[in-house]
Amino acid sequence: MTMDATLIAGLFGQEVHAPQVRALFDQLNTLRRPVTDGTEDSAFYDWVLVRRHGLELGFVDSNYHAGAAKSTWGHGEPLLVQAYFYSAHDDIAGFEGTLPYAVTFTDSRPQVRKKLQKFDAKRRSYLNDTWDIDALTLNVMYSETEDKIDRIAWYLPARPLQLPAASDTPSLDSVVASLGEPVDSPVFRTVWSRYIGAAQWKSAVDEGIIDLAEKVGITIGISVSQPTSVCRSITFHSNRDSDAVEWPGTLPMQLLFGDSPEILFLKIKDSPAQHADSSLTGYAVWHFPDYTLHVLYSNVLNRILRVKLISPGCWKCVDES
User: Fold this and answer.
1) How far apart are CA 266 and CA 262, in angstroms?
2) Distances (CA, A) of 201 to 30, 178, 208, 211
3) Contact, 211 vs 245, CB < 8 A?
4) pLDDT tens digits, one per residue of 66-78
5) Which pairing describes strands 209-212 and 218-223: parallel, antiparallel, or unpaired?
6) In 97-135, beta strands by DSSP E
7) Per residue in 19-48, is it b (16+ CB within 10 Å) or e — as a string?
8) Angle at alpha carbon of residue 16, lines to 14 and 21, rounded to 5°
9) Nearest CA to 251 among 266, 234, 265?
10) Which of these, 250, 227, 219, lies nearest to 321 by C-alpha position?
11) pTM beyond 0.90, yes or no
């Protein structure tokens, strides 16, 4: 059976019961179907891996993907939005169809880049390469020696979640100034009171967190203590990180959420105090006089996911994720 990756990507955005998607399942000869109602571990996503064909299909709840009202998430239809094409390894057969942009699993990293060189301005790189082309995101993962392709992932990105209303965001200087301040101090309240209701002030003391992720793309970690609790950390979220809207203000060190890990380490030339990578994500930590900086990035999308400022001396108290 011969399949074409480009034709499969052409089905992105169609519901699981659409005739062409059903025909693809018939071609794969699998009875498994995705569940995207939020009851599974991966919430509104589910994947169907067909090992004998080296192909995995990713589905998402249509309401979640569209950025509809949160109350509707899990009540839509599963949409086909991802495809993973595997080279042969372990118990997964190699995908035998045509791969996108004439690449082959035997191509080295330089060969892949040459074949996609006309899209080079849209490439983000680090451990692997990612391109945003024609509303889709293409990711190529290589072997350890980069002499062949290990896996190709193709995505239809979800619609960005929208800020609830246009509003001024605090300056980066004022955000940094609120770090380490008691939550009842004038400095802290001047910066954050416009976003925080009375109930959130109380929960901050009780639970150690002020969740502004849906309002302005920020979460504030509070160190609960007596006689007063203090601001321990401030986290800036990119769009859909922890189901947040994207922080619309300035990030520290002139960082941008669209920066690849390569760009991150060019912008911050100091060696990080801690740094680790997995196949999916990576993080780096730097200590500066005013704060400890923790940056989480995607090794699939090759972009920054989350930036956290931590009050000096508190790093050991903060989870590395």
Assistant:
1) 6
2) 52, 15, 10, 10
3) no
4) 999 999 999 999 9
5) antiparallel
6) 123-125, 129-133
7) eebeebbeebebeeebbbeeeeeebbbbeb
8) 70
9) 234
10) 219
11) yes
Please give the backbone phi and psi of residue 227, each rounded to the nearest 5 degrees, phi first: -85, -10
Q: How far is CA 27 from CA 22, 24, 32, 82, 314, in A?
A: 9, 5, 13, 17, 55
CA 238 to chain centre: 8
**pLDDT tens digits, 124-146:** 999 999 999 999 999 999 999 99
pLDDT average, residue stretch 39-58: 89
Tokens standing for residue 72: 């509707």
Tokens of 135: 């509303």
C-alpha span between 60 and 14 (Å, rounded): 11
Positive/negative CA dihedral, 70, 175, 272, 312:
negative
Tokens 């959130």 belong to residue: 200
Sheet order of strands, 303-310 included: 209-212, 218-223, 230-237, 303-310, 292-298, 281-287, 274-277
Q: Which residues pair with 6 in a beta bridge?
A: none
What residues contact residue 266 under an 8 Å CB cut-off, 6+ apart? none
Q: Mind giving me the DSSP string for 237-281?
A: EPTTGGGPPPP-SPPGGG--TT--HHHHHHHS-SPPSEEEE-SSE
